[in-house]
Each structure stands twice: as C-alpha cells, then as structure tokens.
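Lab channel / #folding
Pinned by the channel admin:
"Please post every new chain as: sequence first, then the structure tokens as a reply. Keep commentary short and put observations after the output so the thread stays searchable."

First post following the new format, from NK:
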Amino acid sequence: MTVAARRSLRASWRIDLHEVRLGRVGLTLAVSVGLMMLALHVPSFLPSGADPADSGQRAYARNIWQETQTSLALVSMVLPWLVYGLLWQGAPWGRRILLVVATAGVIGTTWLALLSAESYSALPRQVAGVVDHVQGRTLWLQGGASYYLVLSDAELRSAQPWLRSGIPVTLWVSPRGHAGSVVEDESGASPGY
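Reply from TO:
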C-alpha cells in the first residue's frame, strides 16, 4: 500500500497489487485452515485426570477434550501467520504489523490451550445440587454456585427435558468451573456443595 500526497494536501491511499504476494498468502491461509481442521479432529494425546471406569467421568473427559481441541485449533489458525511474517520479507510496516498481531495471537491462544490442557489433565470434582435455573450454557445451583456446561450440543438438547429448576443433579466439574458431565440424580440424596 502506498500513500501519495496531492497538491490539495489530501492523502490518496491505493493498494499496489504487486506488493501483495497472493501465492504466499494463499498458501499460508491453506496451511492455517488445514491445521485448524486437523486440530479439531486430533484424538487425546494427554492423560486425562478423569477415571475412565466411571461413565460420568468418561463423558466429562470427552467434553473437556473437545474444549482443548478448540483451543488447539485457535493456535493453529494464528501460528502459520507468525511463520509467514518471520520467513518472508514484505513491506516493512506491513511485516511489523503482521508480526505484532500474529505474536499476540500465538501468545494468547497458546495460553488458552495450556489452560484447557491443564483442565483436561486435572482431577475433576463431583458436585451435587439442585438446579436453580439454566440460562444458555450456564447452570446455577440452589445456593448460588454456577457452572459453565461444556456438553456437546446433542447432550445439551437431550438433557433439556429434565435439566430445569428443582431437579437434583450431579456434575463433574473441572478446576475452571466447566461442567463436562451432568446427570439427573435419581437417588434423591441430599445435595452437597
């Protein structure tokens, strides 16, 4: 992009297509999309903190891993652009802007991926209580505790008929307060907080 000063003291902005390296940009975009799709389908390669013998904890681990996959996909979207900025010289200001934005993106998404991976590897805790109300993906229990439901859309839809006010439930919750599993507590036991 170049800026030309005119006699009227107005700046004229124009993009010079010769300055845009469409092949390299297209290749980087393709790598970014490919890595993102791969990250969304990568199986778990970390040990889970959940007990695989317990069906509730297995569901928890599966749902928390999907959250980790999403975080990895975010990293894979921005990492190729950082590599692009480091490998290929371009217009100095454009390269600097790309490097700053991509570096911030890689740092932020890597932090989020590490946080998600730590959640997946941590021992989940079991929480029992009575549903106060549900709004979107946030579940409030009587007594004020709230948890974010990281269930799949299908699991959330199948739970809607019974996931309502006054129903006792048991949750498996990550250290970050994300519930990866919620089941109706049919035992009628008194909830513990």
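NK: Confidence is low (pLDDT under 50) at residues 189-193.
TO: also worth noting, Residues 55-87 form the longest helix (33 residues).
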